[in-house]
Amino acid sequence: MPAKKTDAPTAVAKPNGLNKPLTPSKELAEIVGADQLSRGQVVSRLWEYIKKHDLQDPADKRNIVADAKLKPIFGADKVTMFEMNKHVAKHLS
């Protein structure tokens, strides 16, 4: 039996927390740029920066070693990739 066609309008996807445009802090903007970005874009650009500058701990790739630009964001010399989002959230508005 074919699916029934209705005249009801289709639902439009609402932006979620990952798609909402956010403004990075001055410190974070030095890495990801000053434009408004979604949280997903910020995380993606951070990983590009981390990999480009070889900031993953060679002994445990889950750990990120902060350089001079990341230290003000993380507030520590080393964070895990799981903690990273918590620190980055404080730099987005």
UniProtKB/TrEMBL annotation:
Residues 1-22 are annotated as: Disordered. InterPro entries: SWIB_domain, SWIB_MDM2_dom_sf, SWIB_MDM2_domain. This is Chromatin remodeling complex protein RSC6. Residues 17-93 form the DM2 domain. It comes from the Bacteria. SUPFAM superfamilies: SWIB/MDM2 domain. Pfam families: SWIB.
